[in-house]
Amino acid sequence: MYMNNKLILGTVQFGLNYGINNSSGKPSENEVFGILDTAYNQNIVFLDTADAYGNAIELIGKYHQQTHNQFKVLSKFKGVKENELSNQVQISLSKLHIHQFEVYSYHSFADFMNYPFLKDELQSLKREGLIKKIGISVYTNSEIEQICTENFIDVIQLPFNLLDNQNIRGSYIEVAIQNNKEIHTRSVFLQGLLFMDEETIPKKLNLLIPYIRKIRQYCNSESVNIQSLALSYALYKKNIDHVLIGVDTIDQLLKNIEAIANEEEAFDFINHNIKVIETELLNPVNWK
């Protein structure tokens, strides 16, 4: 159960049809509540959401209202006009039936650059106790470098997985930690890309197939479960504080938890053998 404390349950699936490998669509309200019950009972206490995730915030709030289980919520904002952030935060907290965001984050580096006035507003909300930590979601190493010098940012959320791995991110994570940043990672399964049949992988991503094939061949030869490897690779990295995952069903959540295992030899294989050159294909923004 110790590693479960490092997990953050993503909720984009609750409010939107999400994921390249998602064929079932959004879960029903009852299914969402079942997932939340299961997560809480498995010692997962963090939820990640955003105003842009359809009705996810409303569903979480309804769950909080109807049960004694209370999650710590991380949220993201985008495109906020000057002097509107405080009102937006209070409305979201009210909908969620909580008193404070664990982390409140810029949805993107572009928002950080385009809305400089939000820096003071965020720090004011932190002083008021409505936000515990200020964060940002980034994609590129260049963005990580620039954010490291911003003292008011507490948390950096970035992609980290079997392809977008230690070889690409490792040194930048170290620099972030040296600058007292908390590290959260996402995209451990690359929206399910790692599990898709080769013939169903979009042609645009064909250059990633040799890397995926190499991982699968290793897993087959060493009897390593690829789902276990994908999740554990991030969870067992000591300088990653929290790992974000998303699920569509209770069964998926339980299988993910059961899959957690310390696969040190497999981790070493990834670090020594999987070095993606076509890094632009690792960003789902470029899949459209």
Can you describe this structure?
The protein is α/β, with parallel strands linked by helices. The chain has a single domain (3-193, 230-261), classed as NADP-dependent oxidoreductase domain (TIM Barrel), CATH 3.20.20.100. 42% of the residues lie in helices and 15% in strands. The chain has 12 helices and 8 strands. It has an 8-stranded parallel beta barrel with strand order 1-2-3-4-5-6-7-8. Helix 3 links the parallel strand 2 and strand 3 (72-77). Helix 3 packs across helix 4 and helix 7 packs parallel to helix 8 (166-178). It is globular. The N and C termini lie far apart (37 Å).
Strand order of the biggest β-sheet: 1-2-3-4-5-6-7-8
Query: How much of the residues is beta strand, in percent?
Result: 5-15%
CATH topology: TIM Barrel
User: What's the shape?
Assistant: globular
Under the CATH scheme, the architecture is Alpha-Beta Barrel
The major β-sheet equals: 8 strands, parallel, barrel
What's the CATH C level?
Alpha Beta
Say how many strands there are. 8
Q: How many domain units?
A: 1
Class of secondary structure makeup: alpha/beta
- End-to-end Cα distance, whole Å, is 37 Å
Q: What does the average pLDDT come to?
A: 93
Order of helices and strands: EHHEHEHEHHEHEHEHHEHH
CATH superfamily grouping: NADP-dependent oxidoreductase domain
Rg to the nearest angstrom?
19 Å
Q: Could you list the spans in which at least 5 consecutive residues all have pLDDT below 50?
A: 19-23
Provide the helix percentage.
40-55%
Q: What assembly state would you assign to the polypeptide chains in this entry?
A: single chain
Total helix count?
Answer: 12
